[in-house]
Amino acid sequence: MCILKNPNIVQIQRNSPGYPARLLDLYDPPNSLYIYGDIRLLNIPAIAIVGSRIASPEGVKNAHYFAQALSAEGYLIISGLARGIDGAAHLGALGPNRDHPTIAVCGTGLDIVYPSEHLGLAQAIGSAGLLVSELASGSGPKAWHFPRRNRIIAALSLGILVVEAAERSGSLITARLGYELGREIFAIPGSIHNPLKRGCHQLLQQGAKLVQSPQDILEELPKCQKTSFKAI
C-alpha cells in the first residue's frame, strides 16, 4: 500500500451532470464517485481489459498489445490497476510516452495506491487519464472492495476482454456482471493445459466471442469515432 500525494480528488453524486449514465444500468449504482483526472473521459466509449494478477509473459504481452491497438481506434481502456493483466493493459493504453488516457477503477480510496508498486502507474493515469473509486480517501484494500470495483468496470464498458483467468478469478465476476448488463464479452483462448486459460475457455463455452486479434473485437462493437484525447 502506498500513498498518492496531494491528488486533486473530486466527488460527484449520482444526480450530478457528470455522473456516467452507464453506471445507472447497475441495480446498485454508487451513490457517489471519487474522481482524479479528467471527468470528461467517462463519456468516451470504453472497453475493459481484465485478467489474472499472476499473469504469464504471453498474457502480459497480449494485454499490452490489445490495449494499445484498441486505444488507437478511439476506445478508452478500463481496468482495475491490479498486478498482471490490469497493469499491462493500462501501460499499453498509456503508450510509450505515458500520455494517452486510460481509466483505472480502484478498490481503495484514491489517495491509497494498491498494489504499492503501481504508484508510478497511478500517477501517470491520474495525469493523462482518470482514477475512479466509490470509496472515500483513507479506504484501504479490503477483500470485499474488489468485487464491487469489478461491477463499476463492467458497467462503464461497452465490452469486456478477458485475457487470462483461472477457474475462480475475479475477472470472471467482471465478465458475468458485464453479461448481465448486456455488454459484449470476449476471451482469448489458449492451451487446454494452461490453468490461466481455463476461465477464458469457460467463458467461450458460455458464449463469449473468441478473440485472436483486436479486429475481432472491433467487428462486434459500434464503430467508434476516433477521439483526439488531448483535445477534449
What would you note in describing this structure?
- By secondary structure, this protein is an alpha/beta fold.
- Helix content is 31%, strand content 17%.
- Strand 10, helix 6 and strand 11 (209-210) form a beta-alpha-beta unit.
- 50% of the residues are buried.
- The mean pLDDT is 92.
Summarize the structure.
This protein has 232 residues and is of the alpha/beta class.
How many DSSP E strands?
A: 11
Strand order of the largest sheet: 2-3-8-6-5-4-9-10-11
Succession of helices and strands: EEEEHEHEEHEHEHEHEH
Helix content: 25-40%
What are the main properties of this structure?
two-stranded antiparallel ribbon; nine-stranded mixed beta sheet; 11 strands; alpha/beta
Which secondary structure elements does this structure contain, and how are they paired or packed?
Blueprint lengths: L1 E2 L6 E4 L18 E6 L8 E5 L6 H16 L3 E4 L5 H10 L8 E3 L6 E2 L5 H10 L1 E4 L11 H12 L2 E4 L7 H11 L3 E4 L10 H8 L3 E2 L3 H5 L14
Helix pairs in contact: 1-2, 2-3, 4-5
